[in-house]
Amino acid sequence: MASEEIEKVIQLIKSQPRNSGADVTKQRAAMENISEHVARDVTCTPVDVSGVRGEWIEPPGSMVDRVILYLHGGGYTAGSIRTHSAMVARIARASKARALIMNYRLAPEHPFPAALEDATLAYRWLRGENFSPTRIVIAGDSAGGGLTLATLLRLRDAREKMPAAGVAISPWTDLEGTGESHQLKIEQDPMVTSESLFGSAAMYCAGNDPKNPLISQIHADFRGLPPLLIQVGAEEILLDDSRRVAERARAAGVQVDLEVWPDMIHVWHVFAKILPEGQRAIDRIGEFVLAHTPEK
User: Fold this and answer.
1) Most buried residue among 98, 124, 128, 171 by CB atoms closer than 10 A?
2) Which residue in 80, 142, 181, 200 is the catalytic one?
């Protein structure tokens, strides 16, 4: 049974103005305005990631050689270091790791494959800074979750050394919205609307085929990918995006931990400050990261 705080979270979300996704300026501003402050004991250090603005997030006790490359959500059209730093800091703390988050390029100004190019660039930058692939985990939420999978696919196809693991939180992996949950969960999930998804998808694809596996990972061949943790809420529109990807990855021989959290909505982790399930999900991510980046 879910904690009573989930209802408070849902009412809080419903009280906020809704944006269709068509007005990118308002969408971005809305995300920035509700950003949570990073905990005071976390060190945030700006860094130039081969020309892309990034930030190191380091909680106390983090291992300097264990890194989470975090790709933020926002429908490929919004989101930033600022909007996600607090949640990323919690994930880094649970993982005893440093986290690198960056402002990858956004649509419509920079449609596909700009975000993927920047994410791949960041991984290669980490390699150039002498971080071992066995100590790197790529993670992301929503569009960033899909981007996490796309980055792993791109690295595999380039025959590069793969990171230790990947974590996808409520990943957006079907930009055509063909899963049943896109219809069945439309009333339950106040975080995402079909209108906003289709608007963002059109801006990101910008004429590219949405069935491209690097855009919609439900069409991907996952052979050769590292272990994956996928967390999704049972009440979110993107539920089938996770289920279908997990099924394909397992069929390709990939180790997949798919966690469907009862009563949870899209990226409930962002409410960890007030939602117990949010922190528990983050703690589970920490366990996964630690298990796949053990001390020598």
Assistant:
1) 171
2) 142
CB 65 within 8 A of CB 136: no
Report d(CA 24, CA 77) in Å as an integer.
7
Q: DSSP letter string over 110-161?
A: S-TTHHHHHHHHHHHHHHHTT--GGGEEEEEETHHHHHHHHHHHHHHHTTPP
- Across 237-276, b (16+ Cβ under 10 Å) vs e yields bbbbbbbbbbebbeeeebebebbbbebbbbbbbbbbeebe
pLDDT tens readout for residues 57-98: 999 999 999 999 999 999 999 999 999 999 999 999 999 999
Tokens of 154: 């791109």
DSSP state of 219: G
Active site residue 142: yes
Three-state DSSP class for 63? strand
* Residue 140 near residue 168 (C-beta atoms within 8 A): yes
Token pair, residue 281, equals: 């999900």
DSSP code at position 53:
E
In the set 266, 269, 277, 292, the catalytic residue is 266
What residues form DSSP beta bridges with 99? 57, 68
Active-site residue, selected from the candidate residues 236, 242, 269, 277: 236
* Integer Cα distance of 206 and 109 in angstroms: 10
Residue 266 bears catalytic tag:
yes
